[in-house]
Amino acid sequence: MTDYVNWFRHSTPYINTHRDCTFVVLLPGEALAHPNFSNIVHDIMLLNSLGVRLVLVHGSRPQIEERQTARGLSSHYHNDLRITDSDTLACVMDAVGSLRIAIEAQLCTAPTASGQGSRLRVVSGNFVTAKPIGVVDGVDFHHTGEVRRIDRKAISRHLDEQSIVLLSSMGYSPTGEVFNLACEDVATSTAAALEADKLILFGPDAGIFNAEGQLLRELKPTRAQPLLNALGNSLPGSLLSAACKACDKGVRRSHIVSFCDDGALLTELFTRDGGGTLVTQEAFEQIRTATIEDVGGLIELLRPLEEAGILVRRSREVLETEIGQFTLIERDNMIIGCAALYPLDDSSAAELACVAIDPNYRHGGRGDQLLAHIESQARVMKLDTLFVLTTRTAHWFRERGFVPSSVERLPAKRASLYNYQRNSKVFEKTL
């Protein structure tokens, strides 16, 4: 079970960022059958106790197949969708009903952060209106359907009452028919209808891996097609496809995490780098110009370097005055790098100053990214020379084309401000 004491100690700064947010969580049938599911339930209960609005969507594929096998039935698919005839529908209803009861029972007995798990309300019902897929390529799908409408108002009302809403992979038509739905379809449609802040998809792996076996921490839908082709109709492929569709429908962020690893959900949500794969249209990490709202974050980044004597100390007032000179690297709303460009009066030169990268994010090429951005900015400003003054990082700048210079090479006004007590070495680079 997740060590909640240690988790709270390390994650307190991030907790309030998710309060009152709406998360749609997809739990495929494979997750429900895994021994770690009880730990996932504890994590879900914790999110609820922190004020997160939760909709759980559960699948049932392996459970349906178990019932088919027990009854001597075979599974039939077309275009990766199960063909649900009348006998299969009976298996679907049996599996979904049993799973719903089992999930509700676990949610009602699992302890929350306050130890009052039995007071949690879990609501399920006919929130999903479905329609038949019909006949495709000459194949009759019978009782297999797709989402037609999500009862957004009803679900929102229950969420406002702090209930957890539980949806299955079944939907109902206005004429009283029952349809077997893909759980991914229910999850993405629900997330889009509710304008959810996040769609969380549990899979068998830590996330999505590239061809070299490396976990992809962030992925844009436009880059996903080769991975989808490689994954095919596997569960990871289905989850990645659902994440991409959710982004196309306006869901800002989808997270693919492991149902096998205890604490994977909390790690993904409450640590800066997460533990799974984030699928988003937005830039998770970006380089941008600083604004006055960034002063507090800059102070947190620069203070340790100033105390160590690596950077010249800048007061809040100075940073507020000079904030327009700064370029930042921002990662998930946290400033992890910066650099400043100061054009020097009466010259075509500028000073590069205050280059800093958060210690946790060094060795990732971010300093080079900042330098390239600053150099590009200087060229646009018609500058031809960059000066830098440093006491501890001379080798870094020399490796990037800066050559030793002198105070005398600085424009007169900047040279008059040189701090001989600090004794910084001067380097320059021709652009």
Automatic annotation (TrEMBL):
Key words of the record: Acyltransferase, Amino-acid biosynthesis, Arginine biosynthesis, Cytoplasm, Transferase
Listed pathway(s): Amino-acid biosynthesis; L-arginine biosynthesis; N(2)-acetyl-L-ornithine from L-glutamate: step 1/4
Catalytic activity: L-glutamate + acetyl-CoA = N-acetyl-L-glutamate + CoA + H(+)
Matches recorded under Pfam families: AA_kinase (PF00696), Acetyltransf_7 (PF13508)
Enzyme nomenclature, EC number: 2.3.1.1
Molecular-function annotations in GO: L-glutamate N-acetyltransferase activity
SUPFAM superfamilies, per the entry: Acyl-CoA N-acyltransferases (Nat) (SSF55729), Carbamate kinase-like (SSF53633)
One Gene Ontology CC term in the entry: cytoplasm
Keyword Isomerase included in the entry's annotation: no
Single GO BP term: L-arginine biosynthetic process
Major localisation: cytoplasm
Domain annotation N-acetyltransferase: ranges: 285-431
Localization: Cytoplasm
PANTHER family to which the protein is assigned, alphabetical: AMINO-ACID ACETYLTRANSFERASE, AMINO-ACID ACETYLTRANSFERASE NAGS1, CHLOROPLASTIC-RELATED
Stored HAMAP family: N_acetyl_glu_synth
Stated family: Belongs to the acetyltransferase family. ArgA subfamily.
Name this polypeptide is given: Amino-acid acetyltransferase
Organism: Halopseudomonas pelagia
